[in-house]
């Protein structure tokens, strides 16, 4: 799988950072739906991924076991 962006959050301007935070919040709120759709893929691909990469742990977010911080 090819990555589209290889930079860091700090590479974005302030307006872009705010938009990313907003979209992250929506993604987290809808974690149960995303997990249901992506379950097999996520479970197969998340080996050794840190919890800070919360998007790999949608099941834990949906079960309220993981509460990502959006800074």
Automatic annotation (TrEMBL):
Name this polypeptide is given: Uncharacterized protein
């Amino acid at each position: 799988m090819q990555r589209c962006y290889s930079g860091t959050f700090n590479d974005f301007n302030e307006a872009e950072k705010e938009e990313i935070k907003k979209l992250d919040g929506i993604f987290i709120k809808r974690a149960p739906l995303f997990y249901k759709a992506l379950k097999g893929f996520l479970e197969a691909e998340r080996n050794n991924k840190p919890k800070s990469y919360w998007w790999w742990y949608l099941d834990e977010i949906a079960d309220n076991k993981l509460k990502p911080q959006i800074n």
